[in-house]
Automatic annotation (TrEMBL):
GO terms for biological process: DNA integration; DNA recombination. InterPro entries: DNA_brk_join_enz (IPR011010), Integrase-like_cat_sf (IPR013762), Integrase_catalytic (IPR002104), Integrase_recombinase_N (IPR010998), SAM-like_dom (IPR025269). Keywords: DNA recombination, DNA-binding. Residues 430-495 form the Tyr recombinase domain. It comes from the Bacteria. Transmembrane segments: none annotated. GO terms for molecular function: DNA binding. This is Phage integrase SAM-like domain-containing protein. Residues 102-186 form the Phage integrase SAM-like domain. The keyword DNA-binding applies.
Amino acid sequence: MEITPKTRSAGKDHLYIFINVHDGGKYPIARPSVGVKIKKQNWNKKGTSDKKNWVKTTEPDYRRINQKIHDLMIQIEAELKGFTTKEITQQKEKKITGGKLSFFNYAEKRMKGRGNIDTKVNDQYAIKKLKKFLEIHGLIGLQFGDITRTLMNDFYRWMRNSNLKASSAKKYIESIQAMYNDALENPDCSFDLKGHQKNPFHRFKYDKEISATTPKSFTKKEFECYVKAVLPENVRKPHKYKLCHNMSKFQFWGAFRVRDIMLLKWSNLVTYDDHINVDFFTSKGKNHINRPLPPSIILLLANQLDKYVTHTTQKLGEFDKQIEYNQQEYERTQKSIPPVNKIPNDVLIDLLKKGYSLEDITNQKFHPIHKKLKKLEKKIESLFKQKQGYVEDILRGVIKNHPDEYIWDWGNESCWGERSPEQWTNKDLKTMRSNINSYSDYIDRIAKKAGVDRKISSHITRHTASQMMFDEGMTAHQAGEYLTHKWLSTTEKYRGRFSRKNDEISEGLSNLIN
């Protein structure tokens, strides 16, 4: 049984496409029309089912027409053999192995199984770029056997000539390489490099990109200003500023990727008798994170509790007013104590006779007001504990009663529901990227308010946390563990990006000149 696409004249310059069904007899048993008309020069006489390339790329809507031809051929074969179209498709795919295996079909299947969102998105962009390149050069339906060093070099040069950054072009080539190498190791593909054929990606040469270094992290002073930034109120969405400000501080504490923050649910906070932990698996690398939340970090979640227990932040504001009042009272009381050097000698001698040490006298522990200061200290400490306890009690209730809701608004607004990132559609991926871009815009505006006059991205708090770890004397291994890096080289790249790796050496050498 032969089922092949054919054409017949549709005037001087055009052709009709039909499917010729032949069982070996003198005449075809059927010749159903595909229902399309194309220009004569756009018909590819050497087109094959493997590549679906009967209609050339010069024909408008060539993809849809080729797919229509393919679908009709499958439908006819299924009807003749008494199978479903899905069964016929599966049978055909099993027969296609080795160099004739469709690269794009394999890539699509591989991407569906990718758990890492970033990698999946990079793969999608790489495939999109490669398809565009092939289309411009009149090629359709890439097979593994078609992937050569020359083709990849041409693809890379085309990307660079399209003003794509060297780093982006390299990333896309590496995505294609990963898919290619994955197929080499997959026994179901029956695809290997034979004879003298070399891996087309072996020692692939990339352009070096030279550009001005922009600081990737806040300086210590910049970060202090950012944390204390006064957020705008007379804007359309003032709550978004507060949300993003708190999120970025939470992100800094854990040195988390912003995507992981957005995916956190209340069920990712695990309650114990005396503390609460954040517990989740990272979306990149699937590393297990289990860390106790410090009191200051728990307070960052207070705004997110308002929708469950109304007036939560209002109550916290009342605590803050009481704390501020008592702190001011403490400072006023402290200032009312006369300086030690103004205490008469006879009084000093009398105090020593009463058993006060010089340290006690220096700290003015003999003064009657000291008792009042102690009382105020205890009061302030008590208010802090009450404030903390109030938030923790509400938080424990929310964790128990709303485990499947997202902590930060982005998740609930995005309608991801119960779907894990592995089950996300392209629409879900676009939503996540849109959320991250929006988050970046907000923290960039907050940074501008804090006096940081350069473009800020969502990753800056993670970079800042990394830099401060190094400044505190952490080794790359220790920092890498906290950052959940798989490779030490990644952590070293982080250190290198900050342009401060060799500060001590630089200073030491300059001192030798003086």
